[in-house]
Every structure is written in structure tokens, then in C-alpha cells.
Amino acid sequence: MSGPIAMAIPERERRSIVRLVLVAFWLLVFEGALRKWVAPQVSAYLYFLRDPLTLYICFLAWRCGVFRERSALLLAGMAMGALAALLAVMHIVASSGQYTPLLAIYGLRNYFFYIPFAFVVGRCFRFEDVCALGRHCLVAMLVAAPIAVLQFNAPSNSPLNVGIAADSRLQFDNLVSGGGKVRPAGTFTSVVGMTQLIVVCVIFLTWAWTTSRRPPPVNLWFGRIAAVATAAALGVSGSRTSFVHVSLVIGAAVAVAPLLPGIGTKLRLVAIPVLVVVAFTVLFPILLPEAFASFMSRWEDAAATEGERFSLGLMGRALHGFYDFFRLLGEMPVFGYGVGMA
User: CA nearest 333: which of 90, 83, 77?
Assistant: First the structure.
């Protein structure tokens, strides 16, 4: 970013914030590995590993004037957080001990804690920092993809999937795909982390391979190796969400191609994603036949279930969360059951 806010931040402090954000990123990537395979006995505490660093980053940003220019979105998010905190206190008092302060803190943290952090990144990162973050994502994929492949081929109760804790309460449950195959989480504790990493890598590689900028943001061979790792992770993911998100990214890239200047840029933005999709479609069942069979089984089973429950199938499932809560209005208290209760 090179706008007026970024230019107003002292460069030394801005670069310090960028470095700390990258540290927070790697803590996120390896949080699951630490909780599953290094120190499962303190897994509940490692969940909050990034929070002190996040607070420190936001403090540095505040001291440097990052929040000096007000944002309606940031103010709205903080106002919602304050209202949710007030609601949590009301629930704690009214529930007579059933709804605990710890559970309220957990819910508030998940919903509102990282809202200011997003604005820090948006206002402190410049173009070269975004490129660096993209390369860090590709390196993270090079680490996570081989683990995901091993997890897919391992039994669901393997230490690779549930962790090394002997106590079942400290082990991690795994979602399954077709044929009972595990949906691998890589270095994360949840498949959601792996899904988002796959999509971010696809976004960055799509841009890196189609941009006319020189030098390119990613070394050619490094990008190819990272692309193979990303494709492998996608193939064994068993996640329809991952495939849908990647399809949306590729579709959006092709759709905006006519709007960009230069015939070369237009051709690259159409030809390269299409060629990659064709290559993946052809090679997926050949190189990863077990993963392909598992994913197709998962897709067919889910489609049959969604066809019974939702009028629009997969699309209905995706939109379900935007309207289903209306069904609950007559079945629950006016103020609900508490932030984080579910």
C-alpha cells in the first residue's frame, strides 16, 4: 500500500509491523502442529498463542497513528463487539452459572478480536509486502501439502490425524470424505485452515503467472513446485468448499481479462488458468485415483442429501446460513443463548 495513511507511518515502525504480521502468520500455520504433535497437554492454551502478539501489533499500530483516520467499517465492528460484550454479561448474570465468563471470552475473541488486526494489515502493507506474504503462503503450502497427503492415506485414528495425546479428550476429530477417507488438515487443527491456504495460493499463483510485472513476483521453478503442492493438497482435500472457491477464483480471473489493457495480458489471464484447470482435470484421476474416487463419492452423497433439504442443491446449502436463523426466532429466547455458546 502506498496511500496517504501508509506514507504517514514512520517507515521503520511500519516495517516492524510487517515483520510481526508475518510472524503471526507462521504462528497460525504451525499452531495446529504444536497443539497436535508437540505439546498436546497445553493445547487449550496454545489456541490463544497469537493473541498477545496481535495485541502488541495493534498497540504499535495505534502508537504510529494507523487508526488515526477513522473507518466506518472498523467503528461498526467495534460497536458490534461492545454490544456483544454487554449481551454476554447479561447472559452470564441470567444463566446462573451455566454460561461462564470463559465461554463468553472465547466467543468474543472469535468474532471480534481480529477486526482491528485486519485494518492494520490493510494500512501498513505495501505492494512488495503483499508479494512477500504471498511467497510465505507458498512456502507454507510446501510444508503442509506433504503432511496432508500422508494424513489422507493414514487411518483416521493415526497420530498424524488425531495427534499424539494419549487422552482422547486432547485428540482432534477429523471430518471424513467418501469411503471414510480423512479430510486432511495439514499443519492446522481444522480443514478450514487448509481450505483457505489452498485458495490463497491459487489466487497468488494465478496473479503471479499472468501479470506483466518484471521481475515476476515468484521465481519460475519455485512457483511450479508450489503449484504442484497446491494441486496435491486440493486433490486430497475432499473439500467441496476448496473446489468451489478455486473455481470462483479461476472464473473471476477469466471474466476480468477483457477489462485489462494489453492483448498479452488478456491472453495470459485466459489461457494460463484454463490450461491449468484442464491439466488438473485430466491428471487428478490418473495421479490420485483414490483421492478422486473419495471426492466423487463425497460429492454424490452430499448432492443427494442437499437435494432433499435444499431446493437449489449446493447453492442452497451455501446460502442456507443467510436465512436459516429466521426459523429459530420463535424457538429461542429474545437474546439467544450467548456469544460462543454453540
Answer: 90
Residue showing cell 484454463:
274
CA distances from 250 to 165, 240, 305 (A): 40, 15, 27
pLDDT of residue 175: 81
pTM of structure: 0.87
Which pairs with CB-CB distance under 8 Å and at least 24 residues apart come from 94-99?
95/338, 99/337, 99/338, 99/341
Query: By three-state DSSP, how is residue 209 classified?
Result: helix
Residue 53 contacts by C-beta under 8 Å, 6 or more apart in sequence?
20, 23, 24, 27
- Amino acid residing at 167: D
Is the separation of the CB atoms in 298 and 240 below 8 Å? yes
Determine the Cα–Cα distance for residues 212 and 288; give it in Å rounded to an integer: 33
The grid cell for 35 is 497443539
Q: Which residue in the block uniquely carries the three cell numbers 507454507?
A: 140
Judged by phi (left if over 0) then psi (alpha if -120 to 50, else beta), residue 304 lies in alpha
Positive or negative CA dihedral for 307, 313, 314, 316?
negative
* Whether residue 103 has pLDDT greater than 60: yes
